[in-house]
Amino acid sequence: MDRELSYKDKKVITIGTVCELTGLTERQIRYYEEKKLVFPERSKGKIRKYSFSDIETLIKIASMVEEGVQTFEIRQKMKKQKEKEIERKLIQGQINAHFGLRNGKR
């Protein structure tokens, strides 16, 4: 059974709108994509599509860059955060399985 994506994770926002919402330029956004910090989807016409989660990520990235953090360091921090989240989900799944729970509920 496929889970429906949260509205925050649906990739429906164009780069122009992302620029308006974040204050970043298209060039900055494409640079962060090039550095593998954000991963937009592409439409059939090759138009980048972002989610609200991507926008939040871009704002965090821009803030860290402004503070002098290098993109390599940002990528490493993001990787560690993702690993911790996966570990947390695995542990939660083990707990749920042990107690016969589904999604944390009986």
Structure, described:
- With 106 residues, the protein is mostly helical.
- It has a single domain (7-98), classed as Multidrug-efflux Transporter Regulator, Chain: A, Domain 2, CATH 1.10.1660.
- The chain contains four helices and three strands.
- The chain has helices at 15-22, 26-34, 52-66, 71-98, and strands at 13-14, 41-42, 48-50.
- A three-stranded antiparallel beta sheet has the order 1-3-2.
- Strand 2 and strand 3 form a beta hairpin.
- The longest helix is centred in the last third of the chain and has 28 residues, at 71-98.
- The chain is globular and about 50 Å long.
- The relative contact order is 0.12.
- The model has no long low-confidence stretch (mean pLDDT 93).
Which terms would index this structure?
MerR-type_HTH_dom; 106 residues; mainly alpha; Multidrug-efflux Transporter Regulator, Chain: A, Domain 2; MerR family transcriptional regulator; 3 strands; DNA-binding transcription factor activity; single chain
